[in-house]
Amino acid sequence: MRGFLRGSATAMITPFTEDGINFDCFERMIEYQIEGGTDALVVLGTTGEPATMTDKEKEALMRFAVQKAKGRIKLIFGTGGNNTQRAVEMTRLATDIGADGILAVTPYYNKCTQNGLIEYYKAVCGATPLPVICYNVPGRTGVNILPATMEKIADIPNMAGIKEASGNMQQVMETARRIRCKCDLYSGEDALNLPILAAGGTAVISVVANVVPKQVKWLTEEVLDGRLDLANGTNDVLLPLIHACFLEVNPIPVKAAMNILGFDAGIPRPPLTPIEPEHLSQLKAALSENYLEVTA
Question: Measured between alpha carbons, how far is 19 from 86 in angstroms, rounded to an integer?
């Protein structure tokens, strides 16, 4: 299927306290995104640290997002995992709670075959009538959705597209060629947002949009409208901040950035650690370059 997502989606961080989720902060973040023109919120993606959350916390966060934002902005919930049956159960739960779409990361650690990927996405898509997005991030999962495999996955009726974060533009271009008339291509890597959109991508699922939702939205609009001169200018300004937001493993820097901007986002859960002082200084400098007020 095509046309589910166009524009800018934010891969939301999950703000934590010592006792659990900081729902007050999460509500502020939702409003910040809506005010910034973001088209969709991706909750419980990699940036949201779902691997460190309990099932109860995940369900509570999804229900809270629906309560505060349903009908105001598109809601996409991450339900994928390395256990197909569990991914199916989480997909059904997200559907029942009120998601608008599903994001399903490839099964990590188990390192299934390409045929295993096809069967996994058939199972996830079969668990919901909602649009489903594949999430290809082999640097984290150890599994890569090859273009020929994605071409087959794209035949599943409610497969909406692929969030590409392989970092391999040759592969991205070949995937785009194979799925162009079947489902959509989304950028899952902020540093490649512009070229992936220019190659026919319809949306970005962005980490840095947590911090600068308006600017990421501008970039998507400029590319999709064919205003590449403006898009290059916007991207030139964003790139130093994008670099700073990946000085350490995501979401360590972006969580620190949100704290610097005055959001009580807390710190990542172990085994992730707070940002190192040297990187924090670089991050603050990048925020200032984007005319953002540093409050911490």
Answer: 26
Cβ contacts of 227 within 8 Å, gap of 6 or more: none
Q: Are strands 40-43 and 7-11 parallel, antiparallel or unpaired?
A: parallel
- Collapsing DSSP states into helix, strand and coil, what is residue 39? coil
Angstrom distances, CA of residue 133 to CA of 34, 81, 91, 124, 163: 22, 13, 12, 10, 7
Q: How far apart are CA 158 and CA 122, in angstroms?
A: 10
- Reply yes or no on whether 135 is catalytic: yes
Is 163 an active-site residue? Answer: yes
Which residue among the candidates 74, 135, 217, 255 is catalytic per the annotation? 135
Tokens of 102: 């599903």
Chain Cα centroid distance, residue 70? 18
Sorting pLDDT into bands at 50, 70 and 90, what band is 192? very high
Question: Is residue 211 within 8 Å of residue 287, measured between CB atoms?
Answer: yes
The two tokens of residue 136 are 């290809």
CA pair distance 221, 192, nearest whole angstrom? 15
Domain 7-223 sits in CATH at 3.20.20.70
User: 58, 74, 163, 217: which is the annotated catalytic residue?
Assistant: 163
- According to the model, what pLDDT value does residue 291 have? 59
Return the domain boundaries, the chain.
Answer: 7-223
**Across the chain, what does the average pLDDT equal?**
96
**pTM value?**
0.96
How many Cα neighbours within 13 Å face the side chain of 115?
Answer: 0
